[in-house]
Design a protein that fits this description.
Blueprint (H helix, E strand, L loop, with lengths): L1 E12 L5 E9 L4 E5 L16 H16 L3 E2 L2 H12 L9 H19 L3 H10 L19 E8 L12 E6 L4 H23 L19 H12 L6 E6 L9 H15 L3 E3 L7 H11 L4 E4 L7 H9 L5 E4 L7 H13 L3 E5 L9 H9 L3 E5 L7 H11 L2 H4 L7
Parallel strand pairs: 5-12, 7-8, 8-9, 9-10, 10-11, 11-12
Antiparallel strand pairs: 1-2, 1-4, 2-3, 5-6, 6-7
Helix pairs in contact: 1-3, 2-3, 3-4, 4-11, 5-6, 11-12
Length: about 400
């Protein structure tokens, strides 16, 4: 059991320089942990409610702290259910999803420390219903798959000040060796950097540390990345992906269909996220029927880590993959429930960051802990992004390194 001895929140700056929330939890056992909450610029309308940061901090330090300090919670589910009940709304608009999530994640990290197990294993216990394991029991359980990396190289849309319609042009290294995958991404990223400097004389960056050039059309990023891979003899080492974030794209559905088919034929797209607007379940379904046999059609704004939205996508056969973002729903328990649902449906699970990130590496443990198919964390060398990739490398490199937790402050 975990009695909360101390709870406090404060504001910090995210990767865009905007204010976000950081939460400190200390348990009666002495275990102390910090968690911070990222923020998205491109948000689905059905996401849980994000309060203004100062108000979210106030809610943690007053409403939540007065309700839970000194209270004993037997597990993560008990704490998260208490937060949900304390909020009492359908979308966490009273306390704020950012306030609730900061408390939930910090409690999870402190609970793992208190039990003497790494965070990924604590999370895995939530998936396998073994959340009460203590003192490093089952420490050798590393039977889950290693997530593939979905690495953002060039971007547009709301995350960049350029003329590209689509939000993320991704590479997906084919290797299951995370260190090798990250090194592949680094080389291609550097080659793209050199190409853009040679062409434009300087390089512009988007929110996620990826490049944001003005280019001839929406296909040119693929051509640039393809040439960067060829120059490094890595052409056969990567797959291509695209986060279209099409809720923010003005192209008509038939234009989008034609463009995706063309890109699929030319670049054999393995991954396509939010190819249509967030309420267009029907066109998602038609695209899945056409190319879903060998392409992951993933929902993000469509599903927002929400069981009801996921059920609608299941009913309409709209997707075969789903993005998981804890701050879309507001607690770790609800995040795990969404992962379980996706796995039951046979969907690919992609754990993702947000465009406004912090140096918290929680999602790397989440991706590894739940056995996700992929981790999407932005550009390989950007602060707030590389920490997540490197944390995952650390986790899968072996038992010794896998027990190093970098947010135990």
């Amino acid at each position: 059991m975990s009695r909360i001895a101390f709870l406090n929140a404060r504001t910090i700056a995210d990767s865009r320089g905007d204010l976000t929330i950081e939460v400190i939890v200390e348990l009666e056992s002495g275990a102390r942990a910090i968690a911070s909450v990222p923020q998205g610029k491109s948000r689905g309308r059905a996401e849980a409610f994000l309060l203004e940061t100062a108000k979210a901090v106030e809610n943690v330090n007053q409403l939540i702290a007065s309700a839970i300090q000194g209270k004993d919670f037997k597990n993560q589910q008990a704490l998260d259910k208490f937060l949900i009940a304390l909020d009492g709304t359908s979308n966490k608009s009273k306390l704020g999803a950012n306030a609730c999530l900061g408390v939930s994640l910090a409690f999870a990290r402190a609970s793992a420390i208190s039990r003497g197990i790494p965070l990924w294993q604590y999370i895995r216990g939530l998936v396998t219903d073994k959340s009460n394991m203590t003192n490093g029991s089952d420490r050798t359980d590393r039977t889950y798959k290693t997530p593939r990396l979905l690495v953002n190289i060039i971007g547009g849309g709301l995350h960049a000040k350029n003329n590209l319609d689509f939000q993320e042009y991704l590479i997906i290294p084919k290797t299951s060796n995370v260190k090798e995958a990250f090194e592949t991404a680094e080389v291609i990223y550097e080659n793209v950097n050199n190409h853009l400097k040679s062409k434009f004389g300087s390089v512009l960056f988007a929110d996620e540390g990826n490049f944001a050039p003005n280019l001839a059309d929406n296909e040119e990023p693929f051509l640039i990345i393809k040439e960067a891979a060829r120059a490094a003899n890595l052409s056969d080492k990567i797959d291509f992906g695209l986060d279209a974030a099409a809720s923010n794209v003005r192209m008509k559905s038939n234009e989008l269909f034609n463009w995706y088919y063309d890109m699929k034929k030319k670049y054999n797209l393995l991954y396509l996220e939010d190819p249509f607007s967030e309420e267009d379940f029907e066109n998602f379904s038609e695209l899945l029927d056409k190319i879903g046999d060998n392409t992951i059609i993933a929902g993000d704004d469509l599903t927002v880590t929400n069981l009801q939205r996921m059920e609608r996508a299941r009913e309409q056969k709209s997707i075969n993959g789903v993005i998981i973002k804890p701050n879309q729903i507001g607690t770790l328990t609800e995040t795990i429930e969404a992962v379980k649902k996706a796995k039951e449906l046979g969907w690919a699970v992609i754990v993702s960051h947000r465009s406004g990130e912090t140096n918290d590496s929680f999602i790397a443990d989440l991706a590894y802990g739940v056995g996700a198919d992929g981790l999407k964390a932005g550009a390989p060398l950007a602060p707030g992004r590389s920490v997540k990739y490197k944390r995952l490398i650390n986790l899968v490199s072996g038992p010794k390194n896998g027990f190093t937790e970098n947010n135990e402050q």
